Amino acid sequence: MGTIGAGRLTLEAVAEKAGLSKGGLLYNFPTKDALLQGMIQRMIDQVSSEKEALRAKAPPGPNLEARVVTKTLLNICCGGKMQDMATGMLAATAENPRLLDPVRQVIAATLEKLKANSDDLDAALLAWLATEGLSNLEMHGLSPFSEEDRDRIVKAIERLVTKGIAG
């Protein structure tokens, strides 16, 4: 998706990039909306899998949900997966904003989990918001931060979810 570009996303271009015939692609994704829905669901599933893998390895302690959510987003951010996600979400938004409803549901569910499972809700919400902000800047190629700045921000987020807000 990232190499095709949101504006030029066609079933033909995707089939060619994937090394499939258009008929083979149409068998699984009969419309462009179906293709975009599939891409969005794949993104949601990847994030969910990464989150569950991190949860299984996370040490016990305060703000477990916030630690898992922020670490997942930061891992995806660092792993270079964000550009493809941004392109897919941009394409979906341009085509049909309702295609992002599953993403909206995941975001709402994340908020509810943080509210229900945080020892320090203010710290959890601020860390999540900071992580989403950093991720979005990086996802769209807009981050002004040097690697040193970014590392400092990530460490501050980690401190926030483990130690909370002082005072």
Automatic annotation (TrEMBL):
Organism: Microvirga flocculans
Coiled-coil region(s): none
Keywords: DNA-binding
Record has Repeat as a keyword: no
PANTHER family cross-referenced by the UniProt entry: HTH-TYPE TRANSCRIPTIONAL REGULATOR RUTR (PTHR30055), TETR-FAMILY TRANSCRIPTIONAL REGULATOR (PTHR30055:SF148)
Domain HTH tetR-type, residue spans: 1-47
Lineage top rank: taxon: Bacteria
Gene3D superfamilies the UniProt entry points to: Tetracycline Repressor, domain 2
Residue ranges of the annotated DNA-binding region, renumbered to this chain: 10-29
Recorded GO MF terms: DNA-binding transcription factor activity; transcription cis-regulatory region binding
Protein name: AcrR family transcriptional regulator
InterPro entries: Homeodomain-like_sf, HTH-type_TetR-like_transc_reg, HTH_TetR, TetR_CgmR_C
